[in-house]
Amino acid sequence: MPVIHLHSKVTKKTLLLQKNAMSLEQNKAIVLKFYEAFDQKDIEQGRELMSADIVGRGMGTDTLNGLDALMKYGMLMLSAFPDGYHVLEEIIAEGDKVVTRGTFRGTHQGELMGIPPTGRQVKFSVIHIDRVVSGKIVEHWGQGDTFAMMQQLGVVPSPNPEENH
User: Fold this and answer.
1) Sign of CA dihedral 86, 83, 46, 139
2) How far apart are CA 104 and CA 110, in angstroms?
3) What's 13-66 look like in SS3?
4) Contact at 8 Å (CB) between 145 and 123?
5) What is the mean pLDDT of the chain?
6) Among the listed residues 150, 130, 147, the one whose alpha carbon sits nearest the alpha carbon of residue 139
7) Is 137 helix (H, G, I), strand (E, B) or coil?
8) pLDDT reading at 125 higher than 90
9) Which domains can be identified in the chain, with CATH numbers?
10) Which whole-number Å values give the CA distances from 140 to 121, 123, 161, in the listed order?
11) CB distance 125 to 103 below 8 Å
12) In 3D, which of 164, 162, 149 has the Cα closest to residue 80?
């Protein structure tokens, strides 16, 4: 019986696709590690994963330029929701961007945008896009359903009357 040798022809395109897939997985891991650090209040780990000149956009504020500005915003959220955490339901990577979709949950225990602590639980949708270059997050876009959060805090009337007290 003849012996048949199967040779896989590895092309430059195949190697590039494999490298790209590996980069996508590495970028996802960096972003997931960042949200894990945020949720665990590991400030140093979070700082290590972001570029010093990171740009933050779309979080209900002006553009946040630099690590210190983004950290200040993050600390505002951590002080308002010290038990806050993300539940990420989907993560998608393409090129140098990683998209995460899920919810943010926590108890309002500190001042937030002039709103004194209510002690109420919140759960609202979030979508983030993070751009990763050379192993660091260099841009962050964040959108959360702040209207739902404000309803849950009792600042905005809820369509459900039992939630308005």
Assistant:
1) positive
2) 16
3) HHHHHHHHHHHHHHHHHHHHHHHHHHHCCCHHHHHHHEEEEEEEECCCCCCEEC
4) no
5) 87
6) 130
7) strand
8) yes
9) 12-163 (3.10.450.50)
10) 26, 21, 36
11) yes
12) 149
Is-contact 7 66, C-beta < 8 A?
no
- Alpha-carbon span 71 to 43, nearest angstrom: 8
Residue 34's closest CA among 48, 47, 46?
46
pLDDT at 80 over 90: yes
- Integer Cα distance of 33 and 38 in angstroms: 9
In which order are the strands placed within the sheet that holds 85-94?
64-65, 50-57, 136-144, 121-133, 97-107, 85-94
Q: Nearest Cα to 83, choosing from 117, 60, 45?
A: 117
Give the position of tokens 């609202």. Answer: 124
Residue 39 has pLDDT above 90, yes or no: yes
Question: What share of the chain has pLDDT > 70, as a percent?
Answer: 82
Q: Return the percentage of the chain with pLDDT > 90, whole number.
A: 72
Residue 157 burial by Cβ neighbours in a 10 Å radius (0-12, 13-18, 19+): exposed
Strand segments, DSSP code E, in 110-156 are 121-133, 136-144
Q: What is the pLDDT of residue 106?
A: 97
